[in-house]
Design brief:
With 168 residues, the chain is mainly α. A three-stranded parallel beta sheet has the order 1-2-3, sandwiched between helices. Strand 1, helix 2 and strand 2 form a beta-alpha-beta unit.
Amino acid sequence: MPIYDFADKYGLSVTFHTGLPSYHLPYENDVEGSRVEYVANVAKKYPRVNFIVAHMGDPYYEESIDAMHGLPNMFTDFAGAFEPGTEVAADEEGTIAQWAHAIDKYPDTYTQILYGTDFCPPILLYEIDKYDYAIRKIFTEDKFEDIYWNNPLRAFPKAAAYITKEGK
């Protein structure tokens, strides 16, 4: 637990890769070991540390949202999902519907969603517009400012403090 103690002491956030790994990066294929439920257990013990669980636990979307619900120090995104060769890329509309189903289970889930893309063209992560499209399909326009701006500032308080300090 020393890393969480360190994050707590210095007001840092911790990000976890959850769910299916990238097709282009080395991995152990440990989907079970990267479940959001495990991170939620730590988030309960460290309520002053924000935990970002990337990829909404792909493909365990609903279970991931259930684990996060009621934990204001947890955030997620669907970054990297439209990577060519993934099931998501093969069925974009179907996957967006799965995301929406999981997210719509609780009316306040939008406060835990971050816009993210994993933008990295060398490994075919370049579908910026598809993430914007997904946000627009799932959420109403009054939630966009939270997803694009307010939630990331809450998820990463050090960045928020820097932006505020710089007056940007």
